[in-house]
Design brief:
About 30% of the residues lie in helices and about 30% in strands. The protein has about 100 residues and is of the alpha+beta class. The protein has one domain: Alpha-Beta Plaits (2-Layer Sandwich), CATH 3.30.70.260. A 4-stranded antiparallel sheet has the order 2-3-1-4, covered by helices on one side. Helix 2 packs antiparallel against helix 3.
């Protein structure tokens, strides 16, 4: 089976967005990234651009300053917006882990 180059390479179970989310709804993402203000703003901008809608962002540095936690909330009206934001997060090299 050939892989689809447009789909992000994500490990773990795949989520069927259409079965999980009844739209319109708010979709939370918790993203841990390296502590770099430029990387943080770049990720937020990339997610907002790719979704085409507003995304709320809250930041919280780790106690020791080893990473930054971003809580992103997408106000989704289409399932494709969720997939595009997830792909933007997966493609960002400053991301350590995302939930």
């Amino acid at each position: 089976m050939a892989s689809d180059p447009d789909k992000p390479k994500v490990s773990g179970p795949q989520v069927d967005d259409e079965a999980v989310y009844k739209l319109p709804c708010r979709v939370p993402f918790k993203v841990f990234l390296r502590p770099d203000a430029n990387a943080e703003q770049a990720l937020i901008s990339a997610c907002r651009e790719t979704a085409g809608v507003h995304i709320d962002a809250e930041r919280q540095p780790s106690r020791k300053g080893n990473f930054m936690c971003l809580r992103l909330t997408l106000h989704a009206s289409e399932h494709d917006q969720i997939r595009r934001v997830r792909a933007a997060i997966a493609a960002d090299t400053s991301v350590i882990m995302a939930l």
